[in-house]
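Continuing the series of single-chain predictions for the mutant panel. This is the parent chain; the variants come on the following pages.
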Amino acid sequence: MISVSLDGEWFFRECGKEEKEPPTIDSGRWLKAIVPGVVHLDLQRNGIIPDPFFRMNELEVAWVEDKDWWYVKEFNLERDFLKHDRIELKFYGIDTFATIWLNGKEVARTSNMFHEHVFSVKDILREGRNTLVVRIDSPKRVLEEMYSKDSLKLYSAFYPPVVYGRKAQYSFGWDWGPRLATSGIWRSVVLQAYDVCKIESFYFSSGLSEDLETAKLNVKISVEIFKKEHVKVRTRISGFGDNQVKEESKDVSPGSNNFVFDFIIKKPKLWWPNGYGDQNLYDLEITIEGPNGILDSIRKKVGIRRIEVVQEKDEEGKTFFFKVNNVPVFCKGVNWVPADSFLPRVTREVYEYLLNMAKQANMNMIRVWGGGVYEDEAFYELCDEKGIMVWQDFMFACAEYPEEEWFFELVRKEAEKVVKRLRNHACLAIWCGNNENHVFFKWVWSRMRNRFYGETIYHKILPEICAKLDPATFYWPGSPYGGDDPNSQSEGDRHNWEVWSMFRDYSEYLKDNGRFISEFGFQSMPSMETIKRFTLPEDRHFQSKVIEFHNKQTLGPERLWFFLSSHFKLPSNLGEFIYLTQINQGEALKTGIEHWRRRKFKTGGALVWQLNDCWPVLSWSLIDYYGEPKASYYYVKRAFEPVNFSLVVDQSSVEAWVCNDLFKPVRGRIRIVSFNLKSEKLCEKEGKIIVEANSSKKCVETTLSELNVKDRFDSFIVGVLETDGGESKYDVVFLERLKYLQLPKPSIKLSLERVGEKKYVLKMVSKNVVKACGVSVRGVKAKFDDNFFDLPPGIEKRVLIELEKPLSKTELRRRITINYYSG
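Parent structure:
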């Protein structure tokens, strides 16, 4: 196969109302465009619109979604290129409604941005100059025309017309995203030339013996043949000392031809999720040879593993947890939304950064949410490499969908292409039919009509396609789903929005005994540096219209104040407000995660909503749009550590729990110490503990009375776990809400140890308790292995600091700032 890229410089302009035929490059005023791209980026690059993310410019650029646009590309071809048996024009992604002309001939019309579009164009191409023209129609106009013709008026949470097309729903706005319904050629465009045949698809699957000592690998290859020929299909599996080749030679005829190869690998190197082992990947190479050499080939990394979802009846209902290579795995993870409103800006480097942050936060699962897009191949490759299992939603979210054959055909084609594209990734753990549509029908839509519009998709079309094309991967109809109530606590997966959405205190997480928590979240502000990038100085205050505009949830700003005032004294400036909302978010997420980990495997996982943002916004994210981790990121990182130590304190009792994800027992001792607010010790209890591998255990139980606590308003509890391996962990619990307490001013001693050219270890110790220490370095970007932690009296805390540029110890000490909750 020979490929000619058509990426790079194109030209574009607005399409006039009367323009029906494709224009020539010398007609009208053309502006430079970049493909892959979208019209908003092209307009901004040409100075036609301002940055849509700045202040309230989203409103200033709203007109863009009403327009149609012409895109044109001229390119030259040599005569030899045209001699190939088949030449295809491939658009990896068009958003969304487009008509394509090549050399004046209409090639196709598209209506789905979620998959590639491929057209045979050998007979249209010519030697020398060729002209490719694409008209992108206004998504708003097309969708609203379809909506107006349907008497049902199907429901969608944010923009009902979007359900009639296959365009990313979040682009019309969500409760964390702006309405920037862009359009364009958002993924690459290529010409691909083939002789004799092409590899249409392949399916790699692995079966493991019960003792994991033998792997049976199966590779199914679908080859499209253009003309009669004698070909040799060769498949090679290599890596870790194995190098096996299987091949088949035969005469083939035009049409679809299938080849199947089986391999046996003894003592295979298995792929494991993050924290459970290495992410071993083998090299798979498929080659088709003809009499004159190689005709087509594919090279991919593949993993050998077995992923199961365990649903077994128990005293609480039915379990829902994942098992990988015979090992039950508590899923520690996060939900993913598209990383930009303008998807061509989501590069491999963006994926790399965000997924590294997820891995470093001890996560082993990421849920690709159903209101965005199926991510680029790089996303899944990086998840393979980093051991992050993918819960993959199909792109249906918070909406009804047409129950008509024309729509079913769109869905079938999309699902077939998507499943074939993603099924070979080791990271792929589960296919999921939709986001929240079952629960919407149960509690909202069923009151308006008897029929569940979309049910055929989730319960017939998608499971049939997955069973046919990827039988090894578990299919689940929706999220949440399970039981008579789709959001049941007794079976299936569950979304907990009773806390944030219903204004309930985050201590309510302790009452949620769901079997798998696939969404729960808590909002906070982004960093001050991020706020400065989308505001003017006059916007930077509590009740700024601009800042509130960047919170898209109904009563979003009010919720921030409500939850903050429930636990903390009110801030006096914007900086304090940012800090406190992030701390409050962290405390909430810690509460939920540690509760569900204590229930291991009665609860099978906890996926935080959400990892990232698509623009600078006040949202549930752990990392803001510009990549700044919030305080909550570090809270979640600690809560997801392989060995988690937590205290549970109620009105009278104190419990110390250890959750152990390791393959070996944790041995050591636990101390539980009570203090008054002056950090004077009241009492101490201790005991030796053993926590078996991959388990959770209540290790110590005592009472506040036994700890000599007489005044809850003048006391706090510190729990310390010291393992026989020398590791130390602690947890700090105040017995009343912090807004009621007057904490003394801390006395913190700092010292620095240089451990690299740009790396230091910061050592901190305080005579009295410090709440939520946040370390920063003025004027220099820095990474911290931990941050925003409580500092118990007399316990040394070490923080690794990695600087963007070298600083002397003296200069770094001068620049270090410590924030804390002063009460």
